[in-house]
Amino acid sequence: RELASPSLQQPPAPLQLEDLAAVRYEEGQQQGQHVVLGTGGFGRVELVRYRERLFALKRIRKDWVVRTQQQEHVRTERRVLAGSRSPFIVGFFGTFRDRQHIYLLLEFCQGGELWTKLREMRCFEEPLAVFCCACVVEGLEYLHGRGIIYRDLKPENLMLDQHGYVKLVDFGFAKELGRGEKTYSFCGTPEYLAPEMLRQEGHDFAVDFWMLGILAFELLVGRPPFHSADPQQIYSRILDGIFSFPAFLGEAACSLISKLCRRRPGQRLGNTASGIRGIKKHRWFGALKWRKLALRQLEAPTLRLIKEVSWG
């Protein structure tokens, strides 16, 4: 049975900002306050309701956009989201603005942030990590097919929907790129940066496959392979390309990560002649039914991570 994806269902009519009602806590110390799903330098993400349906409203401060010169990133995020129709990309339902803020109305991912689940469990069992990475592969395949590099893959940018499926969020660092082209901007999270980005040699879609390898390692081990309190140390270790696998990691996982995290982009799994099919055919994903995943017909092993919460 196919699980309906909220990201592919539009609201019944065009919405206005005034149509959205803030959801408030009904009990506890925060009773009466707005439910805040996330915060950052940009502002915050609040839970809102239209009729009986819940949404996430990303509120971006205009003064922050100007001060940090994020105008192009905000425009890119809106453009990528508005053009996406994939169950592995967070759903987008419109943009609003007032004198102080820009608003993005997004799908509410009831399962919460994957990063939070990882911190609670310290590391994931292999079936959980396989499922999460497979969802990410589907999302990357969709984006790459549209000529878009993601460039900000990490557990903090992955959300679980109510069925336990993983969705990519936050597209401020995404980049539209033609085949054969390269881009030279420097962006992303230090532990996840690919060597070619650090060397500023120009990079392309291959950086997403490097980041997928880093993600798989972090989900299985509880930390990224290149880590340090000092970003410069992280960069040096990435450029050296040397890291070790814990003894408890299986051979298939080590093989996949090693092939994704090759320093030369042309040798990286996903960026060779077999393309992203090479990743899907790797033995680490051997038991996964890709067709059923794409149709959301698999029962997600991540379901047990989701706590039932009523928002009234």
UniProtKB/TrEMBL annotation:
Residues 31-285 form the Protein kinase domain. It comes from the Eukaryota. Pfam families: Pkinase (PF00069). Keywords: ATP-binding, Kinase, Nucleotide-binding, Serine/threonine-protein kinase, Transferase. PROSITE patterns: PROTEIN_KINASE_ATP, PROTEIN_KINASE_DOM, PROTEIN_KINASE_ST. Signal peptide: none annotated. ATP binds at residue 62. SUPFAM superfamilies: Protein kinase-like (PK-like). GO terms for molecular function: ATP binding; cGMP-dependent protein kinase activity. The keyword Nucleotide-binding applies. Coiled coil: none annotated. InterPro entries: Kinase-like_dom_sf, Prot_kinase_dom, Protein_kinase_ATP_BS, Ser/Thr_kinase_AS, STKc_cGK. Belongs to the protein kinase superfamily. PANTHER family: CYCLIC NUCLEOTIDE-DEPENDENT PROTEIN KINASE, PROTEIN KINASE CGMP-DEPENDENT 3. This is KGP2 kinase. The gene is Prkg2_1.
